[in-house]
Specification:
Strand order of the largest sheet: 2-1-3-4-5
Helix content: 55-70%
Number of domains: 2
Distance between the termini: 32 Å
Number of helices: 12
Order of helices and strands: EHEHEHEHEHHHHHHHH
Radius of gyration: 21 Å
Shape: globular
Structural class: alpha/beta
Largest sheet: 5 strands, parallel
């Protein structure tokens, strides 16, 4: 992995570099003392995988810098700061940072976060490789037969059922909605590519609602079904979050927790839910918000990964 560290404190830059070097996590390509020295396209040219950036800097702070490079920089962002303002941290996450580390620097926390981000990067690269291979196959050799597509669809849906069981969602009301979405995305991909464009949530919900209600459905009925489907899926995702938070509360080394929690949910969201469970906060009282779009995207690509590796076959 290739790292870039931005912090006006040279001691912090040195500590982070030393941790990365000691643990053989990759190469610190460059350092900067202020966000005004960063440009998204330059970071991409340097092939930066992970950018460390301080929240408070004298000329251009972390928030403004992320706004500046957003849309250009394709790597992951880890923010570091001694500021504990929920508003600023929330704004940083809304702009797309992957993790937030509080100062003073804790070696164990830094290592944990870096490894989680590296795992996510490797997952995304695997997904892209699978996607590229599948698209190449589809383009090189057009679907051999409708029967082949039907068999592939059946297997994809079987893997989807298996994954939902792993995620603790089987039996939830949103379970069927997620399978219908998986089926829609599978068919959509036969004639489209997701390399440049993944269907919007609105498009997905509109299509599965129309399919469920039929051609005679009115727009009012469709809108009502879209809203109901969204609610069912949000509840199912929240149930999955609670499932993994419970596993993490009991044992952070639980294989399912390690394998799925960081893929489907942001680390801070899982951590917050664990803390709520520790305090015996009721589920309905939690303010934790789930990212439906991310969950659906990861669900689809994870099903394809499991299918391609034939993991489901040997369960």
């Amino acid at each position: 992995m290739r790292f870039f560290i931005t912090d006006d404190d040279s001691a912090i830059r040195s500590i982070l570099s030393q941790i990365i070097e000691d643990e053989d996590l990759g190469e610190v390509v460059e350092e900067a003392e202020d966000g005004c020295l960063l440009e998204g396209h330059i970071l991409n040219l340097k092939q930066i995988d992970i950018l460390f950036i301080d929240l408070l800097m004298p000329i251009r702070d972390g928030i403004e810098t992320i706004r500046h490079i957003k849309g250009e920089f394709s790597g992951k962002v880890i923010m570091i700061s001694q500021v504990e303002s929920k508003e600023l941290i929330g704004e940083a996450y809304s702009l797309g940072i992957d993790y937030y580390i509080s100062k003073p620097i804790n070696r164990i926390e830094v290592l944990t976060v870096i490894r989680k981000v590296m795992e996510r990067i490797n997952l995304e690269r695997s997904i892209n490789d699978i996607q590229t291979s599948l698209n190449s196959l589809l383009n090189f050799n057009q679907p051999k037969s409708d029967k082949s597509n039907i068999l592939n669809e059946k297997r994809i849906l079987e893997v989807g059922e298996f994954l939902l069981a792993e995620l603790g969602i089987v039996g939830e009301n949103g379970h069927k909605d997620l399978i219908e979405i998986l089926q829609y995305l599978f068919k959509y991909e036969l004639t489209h590519t997701f390399e440049q464009h993944f269907p919007t949530l609105k498009d997905i919900f509109v299509q599965i609602s129309k399919k469920k209600l039929g051609l005679s459905a009115t727009q009012v009925d469709i809108n009502r079904e879209i809203k109901a489907s969204e609610q069912r899926i949000r509840r199912a995702i929240t149930h999955s979050l609670n499932h993994f938070a419970s596993l993490g509360l009991t044992d952070f080394s639980n294989p399912k927790f390690e394998n799925y929690a960081s893929k489907f949910f942001d680390f801070t969201v899982v951590h917050q839910r664990i803390k709520e469970l520790q305090k015996n906060t009721t589920i309905h009282a939690t303010q934790t918000r789930v990212n439906t779009k991310k969950f659906i995207q990861v669900f689809f690509y994870e099903v394809k990964r499991l299918n391609s590796e034939e993991i489901f076959k040997y369960r």
